[in-house]
Amino acid sequence: MHIGIYAGSFDPPTLGHIDILKRASRHFDRLVVCVARNTSKQALFSADEKMALLQSITAGMENVEIEQFEGLLVTHAKARGASALVRGIRTFSDFEYEFRMALTNRQLEPTLETVFLMTDGAYAHQSSSLIKEIAMMGGDISAMVPEAVRIAVQAKYQR
Ligand code: COA
What we know:
The chain has helices at 15-25, 47-58, 73-79, 92-108, 128-136, 147-158; strands at 3-8, 30-36, 64-69, 84-89, 113-118. By secondary structure, the protein is an alpha/beta fold. The longest helix is centred in the middle third of the chain and has 17 residues, at 92-108.
């Protein structure tokens, strides 16, 4: 069985993430979406909240599973029996970071390949941080995130 891991901070999950995970799921028997618990980024959502959002968005995608992890991604991926790590590339400026991460992960765990998918052009300019900034200032994010995420983000800023 070919298992792919799509990991990230997903704070919050965006339509760009969902596009990557849908496309990636067609190339694996099972795609495990892994929400990172120990990220250096200041998070709006807890790992449990992000998991719940991702679970509701991917309900009906039969070979997609959502979970969270802590520590090194390669250790978790190896324990899950994965053969590949999936990453989305948005712009040229993503390349250097992704290149270094892929090579480091391969050095740590040579049996794991990193597979890159090009982000859909409609989402290539977006990021979770920009989306949070727009929502915080009362802007419309409905074209950038699934509806459940829009509601959850707006609820955070209405408190
Ligand atoms: N469309 C739109 N935006 C996208 C996108 C897409 N398809 N794919 C990614 N993004 C955005 C995200 O919204 C995010 O925006 P932000 O920086 O404003 O929050 C940014 O791109 C990158 O996010 P993401 O893809 O979630 O990755 P990440 O860099 O936050 O997560 C981990 C990286 C968690 C996978 C990595 O840090 C990791 O593996 N950590 C575990 C520890 C470890 O193993 N370290 C050694 C690594 S070599």
